[in-house]
Structure to design on (348 residues):
């Protein structure tokens, strides 16, 4: 790394990329080296407004030149961006990972992918609470998906009660992001017929000690995912429903609120709350747990949580950058720094 400030390239400036860019911009130990787009589009205007250097996803001179037709100043191709950065955050559409990985390895740059890619691409995955240490100074990794991130946030503290945990969960998945008009279902409930769904096994890529299986269904909403979780806790540790709630209240990036008394009984109301408290894009980086939906019966815990699929992985990306660059070994210290900077950035 050439300086004390980490220069971060963001390859793909869409739903996740634009959020990662702002989160990087908020940190005092990082700066946005540049962002990429495939061609001239409204997203280029957003990058220009924020002052992020704009690059093309391709090194093709004609593609690079096409940006000028939209009035945009393109600094060059992806290779140019990679040569000026310390680490690249891949926010390209899913299934482009293998091709992009070859480019990153050729450029000799540290790299991180999103949960749309498979664990096998890098052989290493990341979430802040589960395996920050294992990712220290790695060449490349993958920040797990929004659902896996959300599961890790509440399950890892439960595992640490007695170093064992068995989990069954059902993911009620949104059909698409709000800006995506290409997906469905429109008027159906669609079970994911691959059993178990990939979500449980994905948790085990960051915390293999947790025994977990999952099912999933897609429903006609764009707002959030909901998880219905049953967790068998280790016996003999004297846990109660209230002690579990207190544990989560002390856990970073978990919000516990009462559905009935706080009038937050649906994901629509949770998203409205995020807008009301001034979150940009109406984002909710935290996992939302319904207090009145949590119940411990013997050693079996039942609960519901909600995940904002567009934003809960954003702060994890920042912590992951610090892990790859080896600048912060304590995950809680990184989380505190990340979250405080983002809060200050938006004046929250």
């Amino acid at each position: 790394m050439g300086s004390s400030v980490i220069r971060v390239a963001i390859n793909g400036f869409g739903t996740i990329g634009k959020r990662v860019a702002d989160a990087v911009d908020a940190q005092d130990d990082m700066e946005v080296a540049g962002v990429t787009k495939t061609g001239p589009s409204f997203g280029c205007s957003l990058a220009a407004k924020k002052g992020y250097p704009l690059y093309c996803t391709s090194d093709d001179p004609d593609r690079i030149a096409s940006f000028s037709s939209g009035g945009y100043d393109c600094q060059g191709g992806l290779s140019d961006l990679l040569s000026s950065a310390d680490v690249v955050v891949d926010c390209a559409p899913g299934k482009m990972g293998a091709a992009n990985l070859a480019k990153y390895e050729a450029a000799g740059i540290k790299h991180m992918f999103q949960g749309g890619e498979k664990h096998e691409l890098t052989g290493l995955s990341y979430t802040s609470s589960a395996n920050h240490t294992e990712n220290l100074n790695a060449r490349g990794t993958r920040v797990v998906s929004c659902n896996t991130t959300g599961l890790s946030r509440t399950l890892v503290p439960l595992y640490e009660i007695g170093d064992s945990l068995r989990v069954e969960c059902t993911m009620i998945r949104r059909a698409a992001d709000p800006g995506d008009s290409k997906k469905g279902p429109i008027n159906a409930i669609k079970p994911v017929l691959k059993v178990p769904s990939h979500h449980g096994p994905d948790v085990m890529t960051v915390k293999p000690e947790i025994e977990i299986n999952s099912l999933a269904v897609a429903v006609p909403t764009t707002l959030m995912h909901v998880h219905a979780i049953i967790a068998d806790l280790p016996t003999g540790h004297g846990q109660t429903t209230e002690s579990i709630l207190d544990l989560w209240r002390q856990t970073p990036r978990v919000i516990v609120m009462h559905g009935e008394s706080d009038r937050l009984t649906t994901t629509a109301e949770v998203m409205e709350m995020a807008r009301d408290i001034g979150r940009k894009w109406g984002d909710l980086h935290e996992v939302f747990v319904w207090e009145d939906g949590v119940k411990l019966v013997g050693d079996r815990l039942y609960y519901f949580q909600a995940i904002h699929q567009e934003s809960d992985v954003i702060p994890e990306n920042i912590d992951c950058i610090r892990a790859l660059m080896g600048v912060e070994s304590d995950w809680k210290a990184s989380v505190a720094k990340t979250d405080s900077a983002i809060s200050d950035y938006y004046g929250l």
Remarks:
- DSSP finds twelve helices and 15 strands in the chain.
- The chain has two domains: 6-144+313-345, 146-307.
